[in-house]
Amino acid sequence: MVFEIDVRHLLSAIGVPTLVVYRTADVMHAAGSRYLGAHIPGAKVVELQGSDYFPYLGDQDAILDEVEEFLTGVRPVPAPDRALAMKHPAQTDRRSDVAVPQSLGVGVRCFL
After folding, report:
1. Is the pTM of this model over 0.85?
2. pLDDT tens figures, 70-107
3. How far is CA 78 from CA 32, 38, 47, 70, 75, in A?
4. Hey, which of 1, 54, 78, 93 would disulfide with 98, CB 3.0 to 4.6 Å?
5. Distance CA 110, CA 32 (A)
């Protein structure tokens, strides 16, 4: 029954921002997604790598990034996967062994 419904003639009447996302290897839905994007005025069409139809499978970050950019207008900045650690200046005195100040809450000695 659902395959008997044809709304193609209504696509040009859609007047709201529309995001169409599909996966390149999802052959069954790729052509229909491209058709939707071509016939909905101002639609943004995004083709992502992969074959997963369901958005909660596979590369979810790619889909969420596209949705976030579509809704906010800003591309999300990826979180860094590492941090820079620096020593306190008292720990870098190479002239002798220096006790780390107790004010730092650390009770160790540093031998450099």
Report:
1. no
2. 999 998 887 777 766 666 665 555 555 555 555 555 55
3. 31, 30, 20, 16, 9
4. 93
5. 66
| Tokens read off for 73 | 């207008």
CA 32: distance to chain centroid?
Answer: 24
Task: Of 29, 86, 26, give the one whose Cα is nearest residue 50.
Answer: 26
Positive or negative: CA dihedral 83, 87, 92, 97: negative
CA distance 26 to 31: 9
Span 29-63, pLDDT tens digits: 889 999 999 999 999 999 998 888 888 888 888 89
The residue extents of the domains of the chain are: 2-72, 86-112
